[in-house]
Amino acid sequence: MAGQKKYKFGGRDSGNKEEAQRGSSSMAESIGALVASRNTQYGAAWLTTGKLIGFLSKEFYEFLERAPNFSYAWVIILNKLVRLLHDPENLDSWQDIAGYATLVAEELEHGKASSTQS
Predict the structure, then answer these.
(1) Run of H or E including 13
(2) DSSP 3-state of 9
(3) What is the pLDDT of residue 115?
(4) Which contiguous run of DSSP H or E holds residue 107?
(5) What is the pLDDT along the chain (118 residues), one digit of tens a residue?
(6) From residue 78, how far is each of 41, 61, 72, 89 by CA, in Å?
(7) Taken in order 49, 54, 56, 61, is the CA torsion positive or negative?
(8) Torsional sign, CA 7, 12, 13, 18
(9) 33: β partners
(10) How many CB atoms lie within 10 A of CB 34?
(11) Could you write out the three-class secondary structure of 28-50?
């Protein structure tokens, strides 16, 4: 074993390169299947989200400058809204929107509290 190269896959050591590649291939197939199932359920939601952001590019870039900490949540919420166009009764999407909005609200409340204590 001394001097033998170790390969990692999924956080664990693999004895050889071929085993690590098989694991990597299996993960890629799993991700591909997940993406395909999401596209079936939600349509091309990320493509539509990108088009909407492109349509709002001037406003979106101004938003990024004003509120960079909230840009990720904003994009994810927009994507969840687009998903709801395809599946309006998907409870998971509604809960995700509420969760991301709550995180932003908590950040804003925390920021106000810390700025008033200064």
Answers:
(1) strand 12-14
(2) strand
(3) 55
(4) helix 91-117
(5) 555 554 344 445 545 555 555 556 777 787 777 667 777 777 789 899 999 999 999 999 999 999 999 999 999 999 999 999 999 999 999 999 999 999 999 999 988 755 555 5
(6) 17, 15, 10, 16
(7) positive
(8) negative
(9) none
(10) 10
(11) HHHHHHHHHHHHHHHCCHHHHHH
Q: Treating both helix axes as pointing N-terminal to C-terminal, what angle do 45-55 and 71-86 enclose, rounded to 10 degrees?
A: 120
**CA 43/CA 41 separation, integer angstroms:** 6
Copy the structure tokens of residue 85.
């166009």
- H/E segment holding residue 114: helix 91-117
Q: Which residue has the tokens 């309006």?
A: 88
Candidates 56, 44, 51; CA nearest to 83 is: 44
Give the pLDDT of residue 22: 57
3-state secondary structure 41-93: HHCCHHHHHHHHHHHCHHHHHHHHHHCHHHHHHHHHHHHHHHHHHHCCCCHHH
